[in-house]
Amino acid sequence: MSLPRLLSVLLAVTISLSAASAPNIVFIFADDQRADTIASLGNPVIKTPNLDRLVKRGVAFTRAYMQGGNGGATCVPSRAMLLSGRSLAQIDERLLKHQTWPNAFGAAGYATFATGKWHNGPPSISKSFQQAKALFVGGMANPLKAPTSDMLPTGKLTPSKISPKHLCEEATDETLAFLKSQDGKKPFFSYLAFDGPHDPHIVPVGFPIDYAPASIPLPPNFLPQHPFDNGEMVIRDEQLMKWPRPEADVKTMLAEYYRYISFLDVQVGRVLDAVDASPYAANTIIVYSADSGVARGSHGLIGKQNLYEHSMRVPLIVAGPGIAADKRSDAMCYLFDVMPTLGKLCGVATPQGSNGREFAAVLKDPSKPARPFLMFGYKTIQKALNDGRWKLIRYPHVDRTQLFDLQSDPYETKDLSGDSAQAERIKAMLEKLASEMKADGDNDPLTAAKVLPAEWKAPAKVPKPGQKGF
Ligand SMILES: [Ca+2]
């Protein structure tokens, strides 16, 4: 560590430890939760009374996004981006080469704690958090039978054990125990990562909230099949339903998905109640977000290996001292901007290499803007640019480009790329996408040496989903 950096860290520690008012952080992170699954943010079917409580007391972002991934398991890069504050082209997915933001909070005098899903490999847990309980370090699993581990004082994990409880309930229990253990001498940073509503959509037997599939409207952008080969047509997530996607199956899947979200909502309520009843209720920032959305029938897709809004946009609600209450913000941001924002609010020094942009001003005044544009990537096969109104998606391998006017067509149902009136816009957006990718360190080309046929025919027989979890 350089001397100026060491001094800045020491200064941050001094400031934080001496400032009894440094806010606590309770961070709740869901897995594959679409942004349109919160009742008070416009979903007419789902029941999320506790997320609604949080919406009422904070700022809900309508344009917060994860940036993309380099493989089917987008959980991994999404969490690496979140925790390191780095963009997709800048991350080490195992988090071994970076100082993470939770580590920076710890260095600044915070007590730090993690529980639930950890998808970046066991060695990076102790590099990020001082304490960890009921960690789930595996891939997709039945959450009623998922093995969890605790972090020992050595930083190693205990042998995994199976709790009789649902993984998300077990992790919530551990969060409540951590909150209870605080003596107020240090501020704390608590990270609760649910393993849901990722499939399989399993909740405990007898969970009372249920949805009749017939009551679930089909997504406005439902299609029986994606109109061309996006490069990931038969990946594991896409094998969860046959082709063409039957409307009834999509409704059933959404009913189970919503039920799982309602189960998570109950856990959120337990955390909110615990914070409210604690001595630090007035000095705790609560954040709720998710690592990605997911398609669930939109555009003929099921998974999140695509760059449409349903898969990239995430819920983001921030509430706490000094933050506007019951407000929406359409400021555009990435998930990897969230930790820099919390760092700013808590006076924590930015870890080296964190290139997220803090948007603390938006939390005070939700009408303020954040990023002027966003770009997205999935492997070398999908790249996108969103300038606030227009969204361009490029598929180099099939030489296809889509253009959507998100203002008039938020569900991305009308591809305007064939409209000659848009030719100049497409050219300019492709140039901007290329130059911004390059500036960020993404050197993937937007054209392919060998262009493949865009037409795609569904396999006659649905392959059996692979066991490898995403
Ligand atoms: Ca995920």
Characterization of this structure:
The chain has eleven helices and 18 strands. β17 and β18 form a beta hairpin. The chain has a single domain (3-372), classed as Alkaline Phosphatase, subunit A. It has helices at 3-18, 49-57, 75-84, 101-107, 125-128, 167-181, 247-276, 309-312, 338-346, 360-364, 423-440, and strands at 24-30, 58-61, 64-65, 68-69, 111-117, 131-136, 147-148, 161-162, 188-193, 284-290, 313-314, 316-319, 327-329, 333-334, 374-378, 382-386, 390-395, 400-405. 50% of the residues are buried. α2 (49-57) packs across α7 (247-276) and α6 packs parallel to α7. The strands form four sheets. An eight-stranded mixed beta sheet has the order 6-5-9-1-10-12-2-13, with helices on both faces. It has a five-stranded mixed beta sheet with strand order 4-15-16-17-18. The two termini are 36 Å apart. Bound molecules: calcium ion.
